[in-house]
Design brief:
2 copies of one chain form a homodimer. Chain A is α+β, with helices and mostly antiparallel strands. Chain A contains 18 helices and 11 strands. Among the domains of chain A are: 135 residues, Acyl-CoA dehydrogenase/oxidase, N-terminal domain (Butyryl-Coa Dehydrogenase, subunit A, domain 1), CATH 1.10.540.10; 125 residues, Butyryl-CoA Dehydrogenase, subunit A, domain 2 (Beta Barrel); 122 residues. The two termini of chain A are 44 Å apart.
């Protein structure tokens, strides 16, 4: 098994050549010049390669154990987690008031990519904590912020999201956990939550659960759900964890992958909780956490694929098997390395052209979040809200496909556990499911986000893409290889939009039957747009890196982007073929 | 977890309404009327549901163990295997002279589908034995046939294929195992083989290994490879297993899935072997086994998807979550079953329209094999040779996709091991790899099969499809919903062929860069053709079954078949985008 190497040049290219962040007008961006981000990436990459990646297989084979009511993480996880915490990686973009560095969320995101590629399971613990930090920072009282934020920023304590119950996942209106108000203003939380990632472990001195529950007398359904802070150990007046709260782990799940991340059933038995945000408006507070989490899950989609791709490319360069069709390339060896074979190349190009496009997409999304938050830019907020389900759904669907393709390069050696490819596939699979299954992302996109603010954000996306196309016109190579294919994708996108606005409003099932295809169409459009922008940034470059970038982009435009036509054709068939059968016929 | 139910109506429909087997002129087919096949399927289905399916999860969780040099299969496997053997299921199509029933290979194939759906791991043991039976029957001496065939037919002994070595898988010309001739006409086999499915176990009294090795002085490369029969226990003059041969299991692999099937490293240390077929022509004999094995693996692709689909459909009909977009369908329940949601329907329709088409494709292939073998029909042999890589590659790629989609329907419940969906995905994954990775199937199709016999077989396929289209023309519904889309797929296929014959002959890399896309294009063409034929057979039918069949076919034609256009677009880009990078750039 080859080690993981952080793709520093690629990350730097996106930050500085594509997004040109130090020229952006976003507070905090000017300081991040090439040297600063390079320094951070070298350090993060070193930790990822030397500490996190070697533990990845340990996490998989050893897994978490549940012994006498306590969850134990795999050997070495605790020490690695301490390194991440103590070196300040979890607090990069946290408020300096909370002990953070106040740097952009974008910088946090590039570091997360390296950590996920190296060890996705370990990243879930601090990734979710970051979400809890954001939710309490946005919705907490002054006292709550003081109590929890500094601890969560540094991951002295970790955080969780408690949504799912046995009878409900997507449809949280069905949830039954209840919260009874107490005279002291606190609540007694009772109920069972399942699939709670990082629900318990032995790497921090406290776990802060954010729990959705229903206050007696609350409105029915989703509008009667409130969010509560429920610490595993109640925090004493001195700010230190004190008495154990009335909650426990019921079991941990045996899962397909992500074995190093403890997925817990949490049992609340009259646990003390504190309302976070307004009563009955828990979903609003939870969404702060979920939107960030969704971008983070999209990142997982391509970051695991990146790690798998590195192994596959290494295997392809060194495994000797067969001869090039037009004559031996390494006549001195018993066979050529399999990278000479066009079908192996095709697969590697599909993987890398996706991964590099996905990276650009995700970091563009992170930059929009910075712009929205640091400048209160409503337009950026609207655009990233539109794109979040696409980043989550498209990048995890395609990231899983790419990871499977990487495994395939190794043949039988990819199927046995020794090479680590199986783990990448098994780990990557969850990203299509958690934080809202991808079908729910598609529903969010088509059923909610398209029409948000009167459709302003989808118009904004189109205006941005078309504005770029106008500005880049004139160069024949650019026009033929990038703008032409991109224009076709834009046309497909607009035709689909037109369908949703006419047939989709008359017959909502017609739009929803095409939701997943539209999510993919939009994902391809965004990757095509970003590849065209990357191509313009790389054009004329003499370095091998920039020529490779350009060639990879051309591959995407020529061979991957035309998928928009197929997705459009499917969308236009409407609800008829999809809904033709009676439920009993299945 | 729901149980598995054999899809008897669907199988009967393919046998009798699509393939109309009892009217076919193939020896042995006339006897197989609806009643006969129904009786066999009811019995096979009962065994699959009641005995094999409940053991599937046991195979996965317990796996095979390697203790003191002996491989032990999971609890219950031996008893189930005995049931399969003793009830005669392994010998359905074997020669009555060998104790078989002499029935069509097609009937064997429909039974295999049920056994694979219920327990793919267990099926590998008798599936490979069937291949060894065929190879010895075709290439063995009279004495070899007498010694081995009756035992293999009944699975008193099982068989294996030993090809792969650590340094070679696809490129068998690199193999190093050697076979030294002995004065008594036998050979001493020395070498190490890896990834040997069913290489050893505790379910039969002998294992007959078919081993590729090189005789000293043989020509270099693939043309110097011979095939040997190497029994685990040498067969005494009484026909019973006697002295242990000089071979052993080195280890068993820890794999992503298929845990119940022992994947062995086999170490031959001067083991006694017997030449099977001619010296240096081992690949010819091995191909007898491999072609049959490849159809069997294609079958695994959709048969596992069928089992996963049954679970997903059951979940979708019973899991309550959310409301139908156009108003509650089950107002008396707290929520509607998720099958009301168009995106869930879309996924289930994608799964079933693939599975049903794949079943038709595979059984058509099995019928062609019967025609080729029982009537020495060279045209049928040529056509099934052309289609074998497509059955193997397309059905396992798409079968895996469908299995992943079925897992997705269950959300987080699909990711935890309890529901069994993870096992289906992990098991299905190997089918894309073994018996020739799917990229190798694509290479076989484009690089060898297309041009075989001067291109006669691809012309034969086109003539058959076009002949059907002409015969079915005239009916407006048929034309609009089936023949129109099929005609488009035929046109895409012909354009791709034209490209291969012009650009592909000038620049072989251009053809090979499109090989996987062409395999998929051909797979869609075949499924489209078979769906159109099934539609004609179902047309006008009043039963719910036939109306469902027609609606499922319409879905495939409208939403899945248009993928041919995308594959064509990719093929036409040629080698340029695929081969643009230097190997070092990866």
């Amino acid at each position: 098994m080859t080690g993981y190497t952080a793709p520093i040049d690629d990350l730097q290219f996106v930050l500085h050549d594509l997004l040109r962040i130090s020229e952006a007008d976003i507070p905090g961006y000017a300081e991040i010049d090439r040297e600063v981000s390079h320094g951070a990436l070298v350090e993060a990459g070193r930790l990822a390669s030397n500490v996190l990646a070697p533990l990845n297989v340990v996490g998989d084979t050893e897994g978490c154990r549940f012994e006498n009511g306590v969850v134990r993480t795999p050997a070495g996880f605790r020490e690695a987690f301490d390194r991440i915490r103590l070196d300040g990686w979890t607090a990069i973009d946290c408020d300096p008031q909370d002990g953070g560095q106040g740097l952009p969320y974008l910088l946090h995101t590039v570091v997360q990519e390296c950590f996920v590629s190296a060890n996705m399971a370990l990243q879930t613990y601090h990734g979710l904590t970051h979400g809890a930090y954001s939710a309490i920072r946005r919705h907490g009282t002054e006292a709550q912020r003081r109590t929890y934020l500094p601890k969560l920023a540094r991951c002295d304590w970790t955080g969780t999201m408690n949504l799912t119950e046995p009878q409900c996942g997507t449809d949280l209106g069905l949830l039954r956990s209840r919260a009874e108000p107490q005279p002291d203003g606190s609540y007694r939380i009772t109920g069972t939550k399942i699939f709670i990632s990082a629900g318990d472990h032995d790497m921090a001195e406290n776990v802060i659960h954010l729990v959705l529950a229903r206050i007696p007398g609350a409105p029915e359904g989703i509008k009667g759900v409130s969010l509560f802070i429920v610490p595993r150990y109640l925090v004493g007046p001195d700010g230190a964890p004190g008495a154990a709260n009335a909650l426990r782990v019921g079991r941990i799940e045996r899962k397909m992958g992500l074995h190093g991340s403890a997925t817990c059933e949490m049992v609340y038995d009259g646990a003390t909780g504190f309302l976070l945000g307004e009563a009955h408006k828990g979903m609003r507070a939870m969404f702060t956490m979920m939107n960030e989490a969704r971008l983070g899950v999209g990142l997982q989609g391509y970051a695991v694929a990146e790690a798998a791709y590195q192994q596959a490319a290494d295997w392809a360069r060194t495994r000797l098997q067969g001869r090039a069709v037009d004559g031996p390339e390494a006549p001195e060896l018993p066979a050529d390395p399999i990278i000479v074979h066009p079908d192996i190349r095709r697969s590697l190009m599909e993987q890398r052209s996706f991964i590099e496009g996905a990276r650009a997409f995700t970091l563009w999304g992170a930059m929009l979040i910075d712009r929205a938050q640091r400048m209160e830019d409503a337009q950026a907020h609207g655009l990233v809200s539109l794109l979040t389900p696409v980043i989550k759904g498209f990048l995890t669907d395609k990231g899983f496909e790419a990871t499977v393709a990487a495994q395939q390069v190794l043949g039988g050696h990819g199927y046995v556990e020794d090479a680590g490819m199986s783990q990448f596939v098994r780990d990557a699979r969850i990203a299509m499911i958690y934080e809202g299954a991808n079908g729910v992302q598609a529903l969010d996109l088509v059923g909610r986000k398209l029409a948000l603010d009167g459709g302003a954000h989808v118009r904004g996306l189109l205006a941005e893409v078309k504005g770029f196309m106008a500005s880049a016109a004139g160069d024949p190579d650019m026009e033929q290889r990038f703008l032409g294919p991109l224009g076709k994708a834009v046309a497909d996108f607009e035709t689909a939009l037109g369908f949703f606005m006419t047939d989709g409003t008359k017959e909502p099932r017609a739009a929803l039957a095409g939701a997943t295809d539209f999510l993919h169409l939009t994902g391809h459009l965004c990757l095509g747009y970003l590849w065209a922008r990357m191509a313009r940034a790389a054009q004329g470059g003499e370095s091998a890196f920039l020529r490779t970038k350009l060639a990879t982009g051309r591959f995407y435009m020529a061979r991957q982007l035309p998928a928009t036509g197929l997705h459009l054709a499917r969308i236009l068939t409407g609800a008829g073929p999809v809904m033709a059968l009676q439920a009993e016929a299945f």
